[in-house]
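I hope you will forgive my troubling you with a question about protein structure. You will find the record immediately after this paragraph.
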Amino acid sequence: MSKKDYFPSGSEGALQGSDLNRYVANKEREIAEYLERFDAKSPPLDPGTVDYDFRNPDAVREQLGHVLDYGYRIETEVARNVAEIAIVFHQLDPNNLRFIEIWEPQEVQHGIILGRAEEAMGRTPSDVNLEEVSTTVKIAGILTQCVPLVERPIVANYLVTGASTEKGATSLYSHIYDGLVGMGEKRFADTGIAQIKKQEPGHFGFYRKQYEWLRPQMSDWDMRLARGIKRLGNPNVFPGATNKERKASLGRGVLQIVGDDGLNALSLPIERLRAEMLEFKMKGGKIPRDGLKGLEEAVELAQHMDAQAA
């Protein structure tokens, strides 16, 4: 299957009646079996099996410290993400609930591994936000409770964001792995980062399959509302940057990856995925400027705060 086919658009309402019911039932079984296979082959990692003995911890801290710290924060804040899901969605289907049971312990262990790596290189991991739920999430929760018709379109956006985040995580860990290997730090790269990276595509696969299950059930109105919700604002593709220090932390991580002048060269499959899943057409393969806006603001804030502290 080509990348273009990951999120087939099809036409709204193409399946109806018994055909739709049969498709939905078959897809539910397919996803359930997928989750059990994934759980069996990808149990939560054991941080004790990772080699944190860096050859040159100072160099790793200087070149990759901010990137590792950002990954640590995102993975560790999964507990808040689960709380947000509970606020927004009141009737999650069994496959979504099963996915959360598998996904949360995996992400927690990823965070522990990255945090220990930071400590091993002489860096203190950032504070994490485990309880602060954004106003946007609270509003979405009220909407889905009071206006049930909006829940399906919001679920579609949730799946878009989930797939986008997992794709972004895979790219992030590829960058970290290559950087570590290039610095001669293959032990932590192989026993830590490579093992984390192996689990991310399984999460993406769930979001993809779940969208394929949901899409034929969405009416024209559902899709128009889903697009409208997306247009209300560009959700932060790197979640958790809810205050200035967190946003600056994101900016520092971006700068370590791409440098001061590399923002426009940064690959953002996130916006492409959103475009495909909600059937927005992109002109000439270019990423819309709003997809970079949040990153640019984070970089500018990081540069400003670091200049003031100097």
